[in-house]
Amino acid sequence: xxxxxxxxxxxxxxxxxxxxxxxxxxxxxxxxxxxxxxxxxxxxxxxxxxxxxxxxxxxxxxxxxxxxxxxxxxxxxxxxxxxxxxxxxxxxxxxxxxxxxxxxxxxxxxxxxxxxxxxxxxxxxxxxxxxxxxxxxxxxxxxxxxxxxxxxxxxxxxxxxxxxxxxxxxxxxxxxxxxxxxxxxxxxxxxxxxxxxxxxxxxxxxxxxxxxxxxxxxxxxxxxxxxxxxxxxxxxxxxxxxxxxxxxxxxxxxxxxxxxxxxxxxxxxxxxxxxxxxxx
Length: 280
Hints:
Blueprint: E1 3-6, E2 9-12, H1 23-27, E3 30-38, E4 41-42, H2 45-58, H3 67-80, E5 86-93, E6 111-118, H4 123-130, E7 132-138, H5 153-164, E8 169-173, E9 179-182, E10 186-191, E11 194-197, H6 208-218, E12 223-226, H7 231-235, E13 239-244, E14 248-255, E15 258-259, H8 267-278
Parallel strand pairs: 7-8, 7-14, 11-12
Antiparallel strand pairs: 1-2, 1-6, 3-4, 3-5, 5-6, 8-9, 10-11, 10-13, 13-14, 14-15
């Protein structure tokens, strides 16, 4: 059974509880991180914790414990649950507040929740060989996508539209038909030797897999480029892939009704996935 940590206590996940006055429950007033675990290793954990700290600062939540303590708790849960492959989920909200009010009180004690999720991430190795299908979907999220907020309703809507179409992900586009990112991923295009993705901005989450992949690209005779690109440019790419904490690098072979790379996983995408996994 999965273990959870809530505000200093370790409990079975089935017995874990948070007050209904929690501002995360009432207002989505909180931040989260998802850390992949492969062969018992917590992937890119330092990058995730730095991003957690940044997001909390952006919404003025003061972390009540250190990042080192969060790391120790995460490792303890991984070891306690013997989590070989899966996820460590971290969520920090502003805390409980009575009475309910949009304006938060000073001095609230943040709620810290950390728990494990068993998931066979190695299944994605086989999936990557054949690639995945995705859809395109309007980007209707709030305008601070750089903050890893627990408010994910627009992402949920996009993800479930993709699910209805039997697709793996939804690629989001803005009012000018420019690609922003996926409903839970960074989107990349390969043109020749160039690996292209959207520049960092308030509309884009700085993905931890993205950060690590940039170094891999630069060290392997490929060119990293940040630029805004359209749906039309996306459809004409040599290769397309997505990145996130659980998919790593996942080749995309069909977007809506358009096949990419003749419907086969691209050679460079597969190579980058292999290099990323070797770097874990």
